[in-house]
Amino acid sequence: MHVTIIGAGLGGLTLARVLHVHGIPAAVYEAEPSPMARMQGGMLDIHDYNGQLAVEAAGLTEEFRGLVLEGRQAMRILERDGTVLLDKADDGTGGRPEVQRGELRRMLLDSLPAGAVHWGHKVTGVRAVGDGRHEVAFADGTTVTTALLVGADGAWSRVRPLLTPAKPEYTGESFVEVYLFDADTRHPAAAKAVGGGSMMAPARHQGIFAHREAGDTLHTYVSLTRPLAWFDAVDFTDPAAAAARVAAEFDGWAPELTALITDGDTAPVLRPHYTLPLGHRWERVPGVTLLGDAAHLMPANGEGANLAMLDGAELGLALAAHPDDVEAALAEFEGTMFPRAAKVAAESLELNELLSGEDGEDTARILMDAFEAFTGAVRQS
To answer: How far apart are CA 45 and CA 370, in angstroms?
Structure first.
């Protein structure tokens, strides 16, 4: 067995690592030219009921613990006027420790054999060539033919059309991201509002969220439920003007909260959110499957990276358990992945609808009740 994985994100790399642990060779093809070609996003809370299980299957628990940023499980909820409604300290249990996405990816990369990841391989086409085999074509003119193809290539997967015609659709919500550096010194009011971990200031159809990352850095996520045309009218080539336009949607909010937008040390970056249909699945196609966002892209809910890693780990374990019957392994994997992803997506949709339908004094109660219910449901799945 030799596995061809498209995409060197967390899901694809977790799969490659678990396969390596079990002596199964795999090649990962990634469009980016190098591991450092772009920033790898911000903080991730890796949950004990999915992401940490994947880390354990990969045999990297000790390495993972070395990446955890202490105290970052702390959480605050603020009203738009800056009133602190909830200030929950890091309980130290490790149930959802925070790590930097880039460091987590580096841990996985370092755990693979040299040459396992082929950088600068952008997929231009994939086609079936018979007997469950598929040919992958790359932008540099090269091709590879494989008996087992895994699409771990995210929202706009080039492998997905082999299995399903489904395409991502805009959820109606976008994030605008900004970083503030040397926060305690240069942005003390904003730093105090965020606290030692994560901060949420939610409102109907919008909100200001932030994480305290490594190195005294604040990472702001401004949530706006607006049509894509609204964002098209914002000139993101002019960082100051873009920040001012986004901040204008929060007129009357506390200045320490709007400073998380206007005082950014980086240009605002637009991140529209897309989703695949709820309960997305496909009929078994020999020699190919999907994992992570390629399989079950859903609205932002804090579960995406965790699910992708668990997908990768479970697929690797299934292949190791059925070395002489790849189709049995793929069927077993998909049979577990489909209902799990559908359940999480349904719970996430319910949570988002609940928050979108309320506003005002009950924000903390609504958010916390929904969060606890959602977390409990996922733990029981």
So the answer is: 18
Strand order in the sheet with 143-146: 123-130, 133-138, 143-146
Cα 101 from Cα 11, distance rounded (Å): 12
Q: What is the DSSP string of 317-367?
A: HHHHH-TT-HHHHHHHHHHHHHHHHHHHHHHHHHHHHHHHT--STTHHHHH
Contact 230, 210 (CB under 8 A): no
Q: How big is the CA angle at 290 (ends 284 and 292), to the nearest 5 degrees?
A: 140
The predicted model gives 86-98 an average pLDDT of: 81
Contact (Cβ atoms closer than 8 angstroms) between residue 69 and residue 45: no
DSSP, collapsed to helix, strand or coil, labels residue 246 as helix
Q: Do 108 and 17 touch, CB atoms closer than 8 A?
A: yes
CA-based nearest residue to 211, from 93, 327, 75 = 75
* 4-8, 176-180, 210-214, 373-377: the lowest-pLDDT one: 373-377
49 or 372, higher pLDDT: 49
| Per-residue pLDDT at 373 | 56
Confidence label for 284 from pLDDT (cuts 50, 70 and 90): very high
**What's the rounded Cα separation, in Å, for the pair 64 and 52?**
9
Calpha distance 134→120 (Å, rounded):
20
* DSSP line for 147-190: SSEEE---TT-SSGGGT-----EEEEEEEEEEEESSHHHH-HHH
Q: How many CB atoms lie within 10 A of CB 301?
A: 17
What is the pTM assigned to this prediction?
A: 0.93
* Residue from 284, 127, 257 nearest 200 by CA: 257
Dist. CA 318–CA 325, nearest whole Å: 10
- How many angstroms separate the CA atoms of 67 and 214, rounded? 11
- Cα–Cα distance for residue pair 155/27, rounded to 1 Å: 21
For 182-223, where are the alpha helices, taking DSSP H only?
183-186, 188-194
Tokens of 108: 């996985």
Distance between CA atoms of residues 63 and 325, nearest Å: 32
